[in-house]
Amino acid sequence: MKHILIPTDFSIRSLRVVHHVVERFGAGEPLNIVMMHAMHMPGSIMELMMLSRRSSHYDLITDDYKEASEILKNKYGSAIRSMKTEFLMGRSNGVFRNFLLYHNIDAIVCPAEFNFRKASPNSYDPAELIRKSNYPVHHVSLKKKERMLVSAMSELFEI
Amino acid sequence: MSIRVKILILFTALTVSIILLMAGCAYFLTNQYSFTDFYKRIEIRAIVAARAVLIKDRDNSATYTELRNEHLERMPHEKEYFLKLDKEGHFKRPEALNSLPASFFEMVQLQGKANHRSGDIFFTGVLFGTDPDRYIVIVSARNDFGSRYMADLKRVLTICLATAGILVLAAGFFFSRYILQPVRVMTSQVKNIRAHNLHLRLDSPDSNDEMFELAQTFNNMLDRLETAFETQNNFVSNASHELGTPLTAIIGEAELALNKQRTDAEYRQSIQVILGEAERLEHITKSLLRLAQTGFGGKGQQRERIRMDELIFSVKDTIDQINPNNKVEIDYSMLPEDEAKLFILGDAQLLHLAFSNIVQNACKYSDNRPVSVALAATDSNIILLIQDQGIGIPESELPFIYDPFFRASNTSGYKGYGIGLPLSRNIIRLHGGNIVVNSQQGKGTEIRITLPVA
Questions:
Q1: Does position A159 have pLDDT exceeding 50, yes or no?
Q2: Mutation choice for B interface testing from A151, A155, A158, A159 by most B CBs within 10 A
Q3: Which of A3, A113, B223, B320 lies 20 to 30 angstroms, CA to CA, from B275?
Q4: Inter-chain CB proximity A77 and B337 less than 8 Å
Q5: CA distance B379 to B251
Q6: Of A74, A76, A150, which has the smallest distance from its Cβ to B446's Cβ?
């Protein structure tokens, strides 16, 4: 069983990495995929106190994203055992290392050119942390689609 | 009872009862204090009187008597009693003291002093002297000053209470008026809105209070009502226009054929035209009938398990027959591995009609440019994504695309009646699904259909 980490900004585009992950690691053993969204630890005491109770950051997960990840999971039903979305809170190497250990990550897969879109004011691009983590990192290049895009969902289709 | 009266009563009752409570407390506490004060005064008198009368030492006694006569003015109804106690503690009770209870005398002997009150008269008793000359000295007096003071207080409090009550009532009157002012304004505004001036809206003040929300809600409801009214009006005018056009053509052609003798070929051609128009008329009425049938909760339709990918294939076959130049590509890249997730419950014929309508539209309005039909499954839904690169729909017209007979302003070069999309939506809704249209004018249209998995 392999555990793969993919950074995400909750765009459908970031989910397309999953295709490559399955292509590359899917043969033989089932995959557990962790989609990670990195956020700063809140600065104010009040927010820190409410951090464990508050779930407002779950609102960042859009319906489109949820549907798209379900579609992917159904498409690769036998290759992907589980696919979940997790939040990384904090921006230090230690926090990230603990996160990787906790989820038992074997490899990190990132899109090669990642136009990180801040899903919330607290989000940040974890590329720097990933580079420093000493884990095997694979970059995949997502082909730009020449077709016109009307809705976000259409990003998912056509590899 | 109107809300205003309720507010008035509640406000007045609440305020007056608070004032009443405070006045009551003030009266009770003052009364209590004036009692203790008066008891202390007569106790001093009792002690001084005892010393003046009972002490045998002549000088001392004379001093006390002088002190008493010069400095202690007599109180109203002041009376003194000296009761001599014998060895066993018995005494003779004078008749004037019959109203005193036995517990009073016991208390005096036990604790050295006691107080009692009967009506206006206050009694204080003290134990004086040593054996064998022990006395109980009792002084009684009426608390005229205290009762006058209390009566004054009572009067002042009552007047204050009455004044406050009237003030509160008046304030409450204006208060309730002020609070309900926006409601009255709203009521009068809503009363003015009728079927012929549905465009009117309520004024919503720039505050984020409940009244603003209410006005906003009313306005939203009016928006929907206005749209529904407009749709209804448009439907009738569009329907009569759509039905009238072929009829005019038929009548015109028939009149032309009849106004003089013609050759067989000319008659044949006229009848051909009439037939064509009549077929068009039939097509419109049939679609209208379908629209009406599917719009009413769809009675008596059979539901069966349908495999979506097969259905899409048969739709593609149908379109290939009607329009051999189409470029419909079916995108299976997102199909789920598990076939069970591709089944839905529904009426295959109706769904076939809905999907072929939509895909045909995509081909028609993109002049046979490539159309992609993608199929995918989430855990609970099947998603069908139909994309074309056609003329698109102007953004301002997107809200009306489901109105029967509505045609976007940029569709004049294409044939159509404007029934296909409303019909498709009715069918999809009948199956518990949902249809979302995204479009950019000049770039293309994307239609996303979600249907629940069986």
A1: no
A2: A151
A3: B320
A4: yes
A5: 56
A6: A150
Domain ranges of chain A: 2-155
B304-452 topology per CATH: Heat Shock Protein 90 (3.30.565)
What one-character-per-residue DSSP string does B372-426 give?
A: EEEEEE-SSEEEEEEEE-S----GGGGGGTTSTT---TT-TTS---S-HHHHHHH
Query: What percentage of residues in chain B have a pLDDT greater than 70?
Result: 98
Task: Break chain B into its structural domains and give their ranges.
Answer: 3-151, 210-295, 304-452
The tally of CA atoms less than 13 A away on the side-chain side of residue A81 is 11
CA distance B92 to B241: 123
Residue of A7, A15, A6, A5 lying closest to A152 (CA atoms)? A15
Over residues A7-15, the mean pLDDT reads 87
Domain A2-155 has CATH 1.10.8.470: no
Supply the pLDDT for residue B20: 93
Partners of B345 in beta bridges? B305
- Residue B32: name the closest of B107, B115, B101, B104 by CA: B115
Smallest CA–CA distance from B370 into chain A, residue: A147
Q: Please state, in angstroms and rounded to a whole number, the distance separating the CA atoms of residues B60 and B52.
A: 8
pLDDT tens digits, one per residue of A17-69? 888 888 888 788 889 999 999 988 888 888 777 777 667 778 888 888 898 89
State how far the Cα of A6 lies from the Cα of A110, in Å rounded to an integer.
Answer: 6
Kindly state whether B121 is in contact with chain A, defined as any CB-CB distance less than 8 angstroms: no
pLDDT, tens digit (0-9, with 9 covering 90-100), for B77-127: 888 888 888 877 788 888 878 888 888 888 888 888 888 888 778 889 998
State the ipTM, two decimals.
Answer: 0.79
Q: Tell me if the bond preceding B101 is cis, omega within 30° of 0.
A: no
Structure tokens at B47: 């002690």
User: B377 vs A71: CB contact, 8 Å cut-off?
Assistant: yes
Q: Selecting from 3.30.450, 3.40.50, 2.40.10, 3.30.1490, what CATH number does the domain B3-151 have?
A: 3.30.450
- Between CA A10 and CA A38 the distance in angstroms is 11
Residue closest to B419 by CA, chosen among B397, B431, B401, B436: B401
Q: Best of A16, A20, A80, A150 to disrupt the B interface by mutation (most B CBs within 10 Å)? A: A150
Q: How far is CA B171 from its chain centroid?
A: 27
